[in-house]
Design the sequence.
């Protein structure tokens, strides 16, 4: 029987090389009760690290799930470390379109973060190993991927999680456990082919490692090289490395005129910076092939496309409300536009950039979002026109249509569509009269 020294040596070398764990770290180790995480718990104890165990019971296997929970609790007692656990009912937590595995992963990390924040843990540790990482590569290749998907499981994540066994093999972990008479729980579902990852593990992985002669040493070196290449790839795609990119709040703007990228390269760049925003491959296709102006929303973000630029930003959730104006001056600040209304004497010229003038008919005035069925007679045109049709014919971008405002008199008659045109009936004609001066400033001039 092996002494288990291969795993210990692999662990020490990998932790040192990747600068993963430090003596003053407070570690939270995620333990399922299976071979990998149980062996890692003993290894951390053997190496003198300070850690606690955390376990999530998703109650998917009845008494077996309860047995796993009891096993991890007992493991914590044997190792004399603190223990945290929780239970979930997945059918109550599932969102539309989420698989059981996706829901379990989401809930697991929400709970991990809660424990880490409450008890001041600095690092989450998981027991992913070399074959896990290669299974992920194969899974990504089957589904379609880029360089980040080819390097397998990351050594560390933004969540402050680290994987110190990532270059250890399943054989090394088993040898270590057997050499120390460690017991663990076997999950019967791992032997079934119900999940795609299990099918890869049982049928495809052995072909590479056994039939085709891929060595675990070569695999570890390849994935390490790919992780290194990805780090340079990430730097090269960063905002600071791309003069065509400019950060704007929670998002960014791409200047299409200076980017000089083809379709595939632009998709790569955008997906790198918007991976957390929830846009689909079809969304990216529409974003890059739109002939004019386009606005596409995900769950919390919006992409605004113009011939000159593409902007990604957090979706504005502030409801548009009507304003009653009983005195002037008045100012309305919107996310992209600020309107200022003042009562002034009729100027010598009405042709002033960024300004409209209309006849004043008394208070109160009303400034509101446009409504379905709104009509007015744009100055210089014969007959009335729907506000919606006017905006479309004028090729006003979708996000600018949202910020357009209708100014009405006390009777609800439309005086002006801000910031585009006044109504013919409220044209300024008589010299010496008081007029409403409407000025505006746009804070988003890139998208034109």
Sequence:
């Amino acid at each position: 029987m092996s002494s288990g020294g291969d795993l210990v040596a692999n662990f020490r070398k990998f932790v040192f090389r990747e600068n993963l764990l430090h003596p003053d770290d407070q570690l939270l180790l995620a333990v399922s009760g299976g071979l990998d995480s149980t062996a890692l718990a003993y290894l951390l104890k053997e190496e003198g690290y300070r850690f606690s165990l955390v376990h999530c019971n998703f109650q998917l296997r009845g008494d077996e799930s309860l047995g796993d929970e009891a096993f991890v609790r007992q493991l914590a007692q044997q190792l004399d470390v603190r223990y945290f656990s929780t239970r979930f009912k997945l059918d109550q937590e599932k969102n539309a379109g989420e698989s059981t595995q996706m829901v379990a992963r989401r809930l697991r990390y929400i709970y991990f973060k809660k424990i880490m924040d409450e008890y001041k843990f600095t690092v989450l540790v998981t027991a992913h190993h070399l074959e896990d990482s290669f299974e992920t590569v194969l899974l990504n290749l089957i589904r379609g991927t880029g360089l980040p998907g080819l390097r397998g499981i990351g050594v560390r994540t933004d969540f402050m999680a680290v994987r110190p066994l990532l270059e250890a093999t399943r054989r090394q972990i088993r040898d270590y456990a057997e050499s120390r008479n460690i017991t663990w729980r076997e999950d019967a579902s791992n032997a079934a082919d119900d999940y795609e990852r299990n099918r890869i593990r049982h049928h495809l992985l052995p072909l590479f490692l056994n039939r085709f002669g891929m060595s675990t040493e070569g695999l570890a070196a390849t994935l390490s090289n790919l992780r290194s290449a990805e780090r340079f790839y990430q730097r090269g795609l960063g905002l600071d490395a791309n003069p065509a990119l400019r950060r704007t709040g929670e998002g960014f703007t791409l200047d299409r005129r200076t980017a000089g990228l083809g379709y595939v390269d632009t998709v790569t760049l955008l997906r790198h910076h918007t991976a957390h925003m929830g846009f689909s491959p079809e969304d990216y296709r529409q974003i890059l092939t739109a002939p004019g102006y386009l606005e596409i929303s995900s769950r919390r973000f919006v992409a605004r496309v113009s011939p000159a630029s593409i902007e990604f930003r957090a979706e504005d959730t502030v409801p548009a409300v009507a304003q009653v104006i009983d005195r002037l001056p008045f100012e309305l600040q919107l996310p992209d536009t600020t309107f200022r209304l003042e009562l002034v004497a009729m100027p010598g010229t009405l042709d002033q950039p960024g300004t409209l003038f209309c006849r004043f008919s008394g208070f109160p005035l009303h400034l509101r979002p446009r409504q379905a069925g709104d009509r007015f007679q744009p100055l210089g045109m014969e007959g009335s026109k729907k506000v919606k049709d006017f905006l479309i014919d004028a090729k006003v971008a979708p996000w600018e249509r949202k910020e357009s405002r209708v100014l009405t008199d006390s009777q609800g008659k439309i005086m002006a569509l801000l910031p585009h045109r006044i109504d013919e009936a409220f044209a300024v004609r008589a010299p010496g009269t008081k007029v409403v001066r409407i000025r505006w400033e746009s804070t988003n001039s890139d998208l034109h």
Notes: The chain has a mean pLDDT of 90. Residues 139 and 196 are 8 Å apart (CA to CA). The first strand starts at residue 27 and ends at 30. The radius of gyration is 31 Å.
